[in-house]
Design brief:
It is a single chain. Helix content is 37%, strand content 18%. It is α+β, with helices and mostly antiparallel strands. It has two domains: 2-115 and 280-308, no CATH class; 117-269, no CATH class. The strands form three sheets. Strands 3, 4, 7, 8, 11 and 12 form a six-stranded antiparallel beta sheet that branches. The chain has a four-stranded antiparallel beta sheet with strand order 5-6-9-10. The protein has a two-stranded antiparallel ribbon with strand order 1-2.
Length: 313
Amino acid sequence: MQRFLVGIPTVSTKFNKGLEALGPMELRASIRSFTGSPFVGPLSPGPDPQGTPDSTIVGAAKFHLPRSSFFALVQLLQPGQPALNVMLPQAPPHDSEFTITIGLDNRLEVTVHLQNSTAEALLRYYERGMVLQMENLTGKDSPAVVSEELLLGKVADPIAACVGAYTLLRLGELDRLHEWTENLKNWFDWLPDGLAIRAEHLARRGQHSQALENFLRLPDRGLPFFSDGLSFTLNRLRTYLSYGGGGELAGDLDQAKQVLAALNPYAQYTDFSRPVLTFTGLEPHQPDDQPCGVNLLEYGGVDLIPFLMQGES
């Protein structure tokens, strides 16, 4: 019943001559974490995520990762499938939290959770293409008002502020951004999304020279935590380069080509349907779609099966 209500299919089973096997099909998977920014260079191995079975959903487990730096990602490994990298947008001192569930064809799904419940709700609504339905959740405030409040509270939670700013940009509510995007960029110099948000805000106002200047600084901060940050950067750089030489942007086009060349591999292997940046590649700084080997032990990490199979019969 739990699986039916939340849309998680039952674990596939082996069949032999048309008869269902008595036990579940073998499912193998592990996770490991990295710290650092994959856009800047090679990452360092991070601490093992700590997990517990989800008592509310069979075939799901909750994990948290102690926050040891401004940048972290979790990597999901399954035999014969590309390694899946998921950025963990959380600012110290908060731990990163995420849930892993069994999806279709025994593929595992990673869902990142934010500390701010309103930002978390916006993220889930956006993931389902239902941002405008956010009003039903709050009961009174529109998604634009809620997002403006999140951006206003950037000092308390810069990650939630990013979610609010991205939502306002998607809704075209530029007036509600005020000049707060400049503060989001300057006050949190470790936050890549602050640069991407400010740059896109400037571009929407027609200040393209200043927008490009901010986009070009992204390599100094790292890969954005959210897909919108990468998407905005890619689209703007491609647009500016398509105009060619001449004009106020001419002097920056060579650098724009270099930044775009560095980002293109991530664009190729990113799932832009997910709000939190998610891309494939066993080496996170070298994204690709090569499948993992059969022996997951060689990669290290945490075996997921004891957490996911608890309660299976």
